[in-house]
Write a structure and sequence with these properties.
With 80 residues, this protein is an alpha+beta fold. It is 52% helix and 12% strand.
Length: 80
């Protein structure tokens, strides 16, 4: 009688481990896919005539100000 219970316990543990490993593998695949999608470089492409321009800068680099804050937008105009 105990042999039957031991066998059933072994089968239950084996099935539990198998299902757990399968769920973990699915989780890792989803996690890796979302990580790769987030890490992939954003590419912007524009066509000018026959030339193709590909911008491989990150969004932070793209939005970076070129003119420093201490430089004003007004220019002193002097008529001569």
């Amino acid at each position: 009688m105990t042999a039957i219970f031991q066998f059933l316990l072994f089968v239950f543990v084996a099935i539990t481990v198998f299902v757990g490993l399968a769920l973990y593998r699915i989780y890792r695949q989803l996690h890796d896919a979302t990580h790769r999608f987030r890490e992939r470089p954003q590419q912007r492409e524009a066509k000018v005539g026959d030339n193709v321009i590909i911008d491989r800068r990150t969004p932070e680099e793209t939005n970076k100000k070129i003119i420093p804050e201490n430089e004003g937008e007004y220019v002193d105009f002097k008529e001569e």
